[in-house]
From TrEMBL:
UniProt feature coiled coil, ranges: none
Membrane-spanning intervals of the chain: 117-139, 145-178
Domain HTH cro/C1-type: 6-60
Keywords: DNA-binding, Membrane, Transmembrane, Transmembrane helix
Protein name per the record: Helix-turn-helix domain-containing protein
Lineage: Bacteria, Bacillati, Bacillota, Clostridia, Eubacteriales
Classification via Gene3D superfamilies: lambda repressor-like DNA-binding domains
Gene Ontology MF term list: DNA binding
Length: 265
């Protein structure tokens, strides 16, 4: 029976129902139903199972291996079809921490999830997560979410990427408390185009305190003004941000002094 063959194939490979479900791209409950005989997979899932276990569909469905072709004296044109099964790789370390493997690598076609202290996979969840989609305190991926998130699109306490959202955001498009980028929006924004709720520093800057070449705000400082000095910028920041931490004033003063091709004296 199909469900018995599926069970034996899975056991012989030493993987769990959840791991097989990740390979095929279904839920663990679906695999459980297949093995109990309550339901059967569709053709796409059957093909994925056969590829993974390296068996034929005839064997998987009927328990019969394809018959060997009979010899023939006729001359035929030889046609060679190159077939490359979907590549996949998975490694799980035996050592664990907090119930998670120290290392889990799960890469290949379809939905392949890695979950561990160090997780590397199509979808990765871990303390250090690396993948197409990465979720963890330290995450690197096309899409990443974490305390420190690096990727094309990222969300985190510190986020750096093409599009970044975070308390500290660095990116082509950035949004955060302190946002630095080509286009930046935040409480404190620094960029080519910067829009800030308190301070904006950039070529085009808009904020209550705007520092740049083209500025809009209650207090405007033109970087192209030869009379503008670093101490004047600092004084304006201290007045606008009364009670702000000294390191923030120092950082914004430094950025304002160097955002223009000619640093402020």
């Amino acid at each position: 029976m199909f469900h018995e063959r599926l069970y034996q194939l899975r056991k012989s490979k030493g993987i769990s129902q959840e791991e097989l479900a990740n390979v095929v791209g279904v839920s663990r409950q679906a695999v459980q139903k297949w093995e109990s005989g309550a339901s059967r997979p569709d053709m796409d899932n059957l093909t994925a199972i056969a590829e993974f276990f390296q068996v034929s569909l005839d064997y998987l469905i009927r328990g019969v291996e394809p018959a060997a072709p009979r010899a023939s004296s006729e001359v035929h044109t030889t046609i060679i079809n190159h077939y490359y099964p979907g590549w996949s790789y998975e490694y799980t370390s035996r050592r664990t921490l907090w119930g998670l493997p120290l290392v889990h690598v799960n890469l290949g076609r379809g939905f392949r999830r890695a979950k561990g202290i160090l997780a590397i996979g199509n979808v990765a969840t871990g303390v250090l997560a690396v993948g197409g989609v990465a979720l963890g305190p330290f995450s690197v991926g096309c899409v990443s979410i974490g305390l420190l998130a690096l990727g094309a699109a990222c969300l985190g306490l510190i986020a750096a990427g093409a599009a970044a959202v975070g308390v500290l955001a660095l990116g082509a498009l950035s949004m955060g408390v302190l946002a630095l980028g080509a286009v930046a929006k935040g409480m404190f924004a620094v960029g080519t185009v910067a829009v800030g709720s308190q301070v904006a520093i950039g070529t085009v800057a808009s904020a209550p305190l705007a520092i740049g070449d083209e500025v809009e705000g209650a207090v405007q400082l033109l970087l192209s003004d030869p009379a503008l000095t670093r101490s004047a910028v600092r004084a304006a920041l201290e007045q606008s941000l009364s009670g702000a931490p000294r390191f923030l004033i120092d950082l914004l003063t430094f950025l304002a002094a160097h955002v223009h091709p000619t640093p402020l004296p």
